[in-house]
Amino acid sequence: MTDNIAKITKILLWVLIALSLFYAIMLFVNASADNPKWIVNSLTYTEVLLYIAVGAVVLFSLFNFILNLIARPKKALLSLIPIVILGVVFLIAYSYASDKVLYMPTYEGTDNVPGILKWSGAGLITAYIFFGLAILSILYAEIAKLFK
């Protein structure tokens, strides 16, 4: 069973890498002010990947919580730590996000409103925090190897 899951995961990850590479190349080759289609497509693809990643963290944490609740009830609360960390980081990011309306004289859309700007800012700050934590954890792991 785990061998099949590993094969499916490997294929799925290669498909995602190929799609990401395709969108990155098309974004840099075809994107311009006259042709914004690839910019929108690339941003939409990135947004979908973000939702998949956050959804996977939440679903697998809940699944792990349910399994631990059945097998080891005392240790079940430890499996909720990723969801709590995600929630705390997002709350911190939301508190730092600005809802100030941007001055954009050539923009004629309807998305330059405080609510959307606050949520967008919170999402960006959350991504920056987790990116920084990933870099720090990589550095820590590599430096720890030197001392072993």
Tally of alpha and pi helices: 4
Instruction: Provide the structure class.
Output: mainly alpha
What coarse outline follows from CA principal-axis ratios? Answer: extended
Domain module tally: 2
Order of helices and strands: HHHH
Which bin fits the share of residues in helices?
Answer: over 70%
The overall average pLDDT, rounded, is 84
Secondary structure tally: strands: 0
C-alpha end-to-end distance? 35 Å
The assembly state of the depicted protein chains is single chain
Low-confidence stretches: none
User: Major sheet: size, sense and barrel closure?
Assistant: none
Strand content: under 5%
Radius of gyration: 20 Å
Can you put this structure into words, describing what you see?
With 148 residues, this protein is mainly alpha-helical. It has two domains: 1-76; 97-148. It has helices at residues 2-30, 37-71, 81-96, 114-146. It is extended. The relative contact order is 0.06.
SSE layout and pairings?
Elements: H1 2-30, H2 37-71, H3 81-96, H4 114-146
Helix pairs in contact: 1-2, 3-4
Features:
2 domains; 4 helices; 148 residues; mainly alpha
Question: Quick recap of the structure?
Answer:
The chain is mainly α. It is built from four helices and no strands. The model has no long low-confidence stretch (mean pLDDT 84).
